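Thread: "does anyone have the structure for this chain?"

Original post by V.I.:
We have the sequence but no experimental structure in hand. Need at least a predicted one for the grant figures.
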Amino acid sequence: MTFRVWAPAAPRVRVRSRGAEHEMTAGDGGWWFSDVPAPPGTDYAFLLGEDGKALPDPRSSWQPQGVHGPSRVYDHAAFAWTDQSWTGRALPGAVIYELHIGTFTPGGTFDSAIDRLDHLADLGVTFVEVLPVNSFDGTGGWGYDGVLWGAVHEPYGGPDGFKRFVDACHARGLAVVLDVVYNHLGPSGAYLDRFGPYFAGRNDWGPGLNLDGEGSDEVRRYVLDNALGWLRDFHVDALRLDAVHALSDRRATHLLEELAVETESLSAAVRRPLTLIAESDLNDPRLVTAREGGGYGLQAQWCDDLHHALHVALSGETSGYYADFGAPGALETTLRQAFFHAGTWSSFRERTHGRPVDRSRVPGHRFLIYLQNHDQIGNRATGDRLSASVSPGRLACGAAIVFCSPYTPMIFMGEEWAASTPWQFFASFPDPELAEAVRTGRRREFARHGWGEAEVPDPMDPATVERSRLDWSEPGRAGHREMLELYRALIALRRSRPELADPWLDRFAVRAEGSCLVLDRGPLRLVCNFGPDGVDLGEPAGSVVLSWGGATAGHLPPDTFVLIDTAG
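Reply from O.Q.:
Generated one for you, tokens below.
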């Protein structure tokens, strides 16, 4: 095969394979090449300069010995796919389920996750969003410290394991969203800068990529090829782009727009929808505005404002970035327009933030709404879920709002049965100095907010991972079973009643009536009572479609909801 690597400043490059070193020849644009017999399964590494250390391939597809070990030749064409009839899924009308492979099941692998896919299909989920699966140092972690973006984490099952998972999802009608991280690299095994000018500056999480400086053409190509590779070679249906606000790019055509263009072209070639979903802190609708309308052309984005408004309404918590969402009417405002901060003052940022969404032109399905996600649980000191502090009635009301809203709903694994297990921050760096730095940094961060050292779980302790695994005996137990049935019912209604999936924000009405929040979706009316007392609604305005906690068309006890069909 032909080994190739970009190393524009290296005076000499060799490839080590099968115990021998082979000189590579410099080509155009800083690329080096060498033809070496190397069938699939052959280990190899690159050596830069005269006495360079053996380094893994920046474009590696397989790292069976971890991020510091040699790469292994992988043949994408060798996998026996069975999804030839899969035509994909479009995002409008979708229900997304976010999961972490390492803690979704006790086994913590792709194969063990496959055994639970029928649960998701039965629930009514249409998209399975997987936290990053690319290689990172250690065995357990969230995946956001990845350093080899094209190689699947070996402890999960490697590249074949991920393909089996995607293939099994497609067999059940489930599309797959993969979380990818292009805004930084992890602290261990990030060798890219030894090959070329990949890095430029830093952000909150580590070294950022050089997207607009000298040599940045190949760096951008590295990102684009990686993203397209997941969609093409692994048959992934969508990418969730982590923290795109941390991508520093001053070019006339932003990397995100370039990615949207190439993804659209690939979608036409593979004849199935391919979706790009951003995580963005910008509150800028340009990200999800079509290119014809002057936007970047991404299909959707996570909407933390919707989460924050719901979290405050359900929990009463108003510390930190939740403070603004405690204002009167914050929940109704955010549900109505997607962004609470829309060219308005943000006390957390101490500046004006965001831009309004054009409710008549930008559909609601381009914004993901959720009660919980990996960040909003795992970045709490103890990784506690809403179910640890919020009553089942309030959880039920929150779920009803999510699924009766015009936005794309997303569930975090276990939420559907009010899981009692936490989901905590964990890592497993083998380097003891790095491990201690992460441990100390985590404790210092929460000490500033009044948490004692003993109260913050040790992220390096394997017990932290074990505590974070789902308990699959819970869905059948009282207190959990009822919540699961509610989620099934809400998802089924969203599928059977087109009014609930209608994404147009200018056809959606939301208002507060005393302690009640009221959502109108065509003839369907959702009424949630968040007050401490029961509320009389007067004469029944129609037939009850779904309710919780003894609510009727005429009366709602505290922390209950009723969904009414006002037409009959």
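V.I.: this helps a lot. The first strand starts at residue 2 and ends at 6.
O.Q.: and The chain has a mean pLDDT of 96.
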